[in-house]
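Support reply, case 0932

Customer input (verbatim):
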Amino acid sequence: MWAVLRFTIITCIAALAIIAIGEALRTDVADRLSPPAAKTEDPFAANLATCRDITSEQFAADDTCRRVWAENRRRFFAPTASAARTSDTLPEAHNGIPTFSTPNLSEEAR
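Our regenerated output:
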């Protein structure tokens, strides 16, 4: 009887210790993942956040928000360096039709 009681107490203490360590690590990770406020201060992001909440009538009258959204679109749709490199090297054409290499899939891979 005393052995069962001792085993139960040790098991409960071990479980509580594991839970406490897990909770302590989880809050540490959350603190490390959140960027410091000084690094996230971007005036463009602040303007974009401000312009995100205006109505269409306010947007039509606000030149600043139109410029901010135009810059955001330009940044989003700007080609990356890797996309520019791949567009320079087009595939060879055979009788005017570009040929692309496709992977050879066996019946087992399908």
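We compared this against your earlier run and they match. Two observations from our side: The CA atoms of residues 17 and 30 lie 20 Å apart. The radius of gyration is 30 Å. Please reopen the case if you see a mismatch on your end.
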